[in-house]
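Hi W.,

Here's what went into the run:
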Amino acid sequence: MAHHCYFNGKIDSVEQTNIHITDLGLLRGYGLFDYFRTYNGRPFQWDWYWERYERSARLLRLPNPVQKDEAYQVVMSLIEKSGLDDCAIRFVLTGGYAEDSVSMSKPNLLIISEDIHPVKPEEYTSGIKVIAYEYVRDLPEIKSTDYKHFMILQADIKAAQASDVLFHKNGYISELSRSNVFIFKGDTLITPDTDILKGITRRTTLELAKGHFKIEERSVKLTELLEADEVFTTSTTKRVLPITKVDDSVLGSGKIGPKTQFLLDLINEKIKNW
Amino acid sequence: MAHHCYFNGKIDSVEQTNIHITDLGLLRGYGLFDYFRTYNGRPFQWDWYWERYERSARLLRLPNPVQKDEAYQVVMSLIEKSGLDDCAIRFVLTGGYAEDSVSMSKPNLLIISEDIHPVKPEEYTSGIKVIAYEYVRDLPEIKSTDYKHFMILQADIKAAQASDVLFHKNGYISELSRSNVFIFKGDTLITPDTDILKGITRRTTLELAKGHFKIEERSVKLTELLEADEVFTTSTTKRVLPITKVDDSVLGSGKIGPKTQFLLDLINEKIKNW
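Here's what came out:
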């Protein structure tokens, strides 16, 4: 079995799927994506991911060429063809082909099944290290394909023996390269609410935390994060993952904190029963 | 005859050149380009374009896989294969293929010949209209493939019966979507020097203007532009093109001014003898 890709109505193996070089995603960075995974063979939080994909398309002014039901059938067919118990699915929507490298006619939509690249199990205990970097993503509320700052920083992340980058600007934090960030201050769970992509795992986590903790969605200072009791990040592949170091500053106890563990247990439970 | 494309060492027709869907230019917007044209069959200002291409690659931390001499031979061969008296050439350099959509191994380089899309002749007299938009390009000094704001604005540009967009932020102008901007105030030629991509035609124009006008490369307020005697834009395909309207404000005399005409004549003369 191998991964497959839907491309404008046709399904082929990923290996054999190419795109013409006049694509505006390639030539003009005019594209968006979305990304989710299955648990127990079922797309996790499908409704929420679809809603976000449609919103990104609307904000980038890209016409979405498939209806939700049709897309779901494609996704289920790709999952089946993968032969895997669980896999990841990536949507990529671009401005389509333009011979003059500017004029849009009709979008290109790819739906791709992929291997899941899980976090190393020990990182759920030790937490991860991130480097701090002054930047706010351009059009942060859209899941565009614009990750050039993260790509440029790859060498710095590696050199610092870190896993990721924490974006901050004018003293306020926003997000990691591909995930959201939360802090615990006593019994209060705090997370930025502007200049971020609103992650589906962020939403799941907030829903799970309700009733257990006081929740604040608001601007968060970098100094607050550095002095927090616990810090963690959320994403499709990371779920709830502790952050225990920013550059050379140790956060909290330097390992996963009890409240982060509580939320991680809650999300693991939800996943088990998905 | 047809346009051809060099792709990682092989030349094929553009029509038949595809790129695999795991390319980081497509998936992560991790790519740059450069673009020039020939006059009298010879690449115009080749040395300067090559220098800028290499600089963009260095700043984006993309290894450049070809030497200058080899690239020049490829360019000349593509020009010959086009069968055209003159054509445009586009370099596209991306982070290459990454199965995990993040890890770079080796870059993808495309060198493509294209038709030139010239400005309508009457616009050299009437000038063009632009819409003003608050934005500074991300990493403006790099010729990255990031043009998503310009692509999003296409509908607004069309609705305003304009040709392009003028970026400004905090009261200062920077550039158009794909070209630089100059103003004349009396005998002084003024152009922004920060938050811009330093265009090769900008450089050519400054060189030609030296000795004829006082030149100031500095921050330029939007209000200065609106009150200028003459305004024009420079680019590879536009050369020296008057701008006579920003939104509903008429600039200068509302048609090409005498000093802009003088610079346009100088560049046309240079091109004729290239």
